[in-house]
Amino acid sequence: DYEQFVLSRHSIRSFTNEKVSDQKIKNAIKLAIHSPSVCNRQPWRIYKVSKNPLKSQILELQRGNQGFGHLAKDILIITSDLSFFQGINERNQAYIEGGIFSMSIIYALHSQNIGTCCLNLSIDNRVENKLRSTLLLSQSEIFIMMVAVGEIPDDLDVAFSGRKNLNK
């Protein structure tokens, strides 16, 4: 039931010490690549960072994960490649496609019983360039978001995030 599935997903900020199965992540990506894509361009890229010191370096650059980021077993970095788009009329399409793919990967990971927490990448050019060079990414790729990933503990508290009323 889609409604129950969506309502059962929460941002997870506490993970077990267990490594996330690479196969589960691959299965989630296989589902997410079926995201809608204008002209079927599929400009998204996804990178997995699991090992320190690289994982710590990118979390420090992201700056929105204090208190829980170090608990994530993997960090997924989602990008979109600008070279798939042309001209001023498509200037926002890479962000739209990247956002759709991001939502799909988060729900696909949830379907694999993997916990996620979205980490924004609202960063200035200096931090973006540092992150790009740290990850050895092409200049044509733009950052969409990071996702903290981990196995969900049996005993878990989640933050309550009320949603706006439908009429608003």
Describe this structure in words.
The protein has a four-stranded antiparallel β-sheet, sandwiched between helices. The longest helix has 19 residues, at 93-111. The protein has 168 residues and is of the alpha+beta class. It contains five helices and four strands, in the order H-H-E-H-E-H-E-H-E.
Which key phrases capture this entry?
alpha+beta; 4 strands; 33% helix; globular
Helical run tally: 5
Q: What coarse outline follows from CA principal-axis ratios?
A: globular
The biggest beta sheet is recorded as: 4 strands, antiparallel
What structural class do you assign from the helix and strand content? alpha+beta
> Considering DSSP H and I runs of 4 or more, what fraction of the residues is helical?
25-40%
Name the strands of the widest sheet in spatial order. 1-2-4-3
Percent range for β-strand residues? 15-25%
Order of helices and strands: HHEHEHEHE
Low-confidence stretches: none
Distance between the termini: 26 Å
Task: Provide the residue-averaged pLDDT.
Answer: 94
Q: How many individual β-strands? A: 4
Radius of gyration: 16 Å
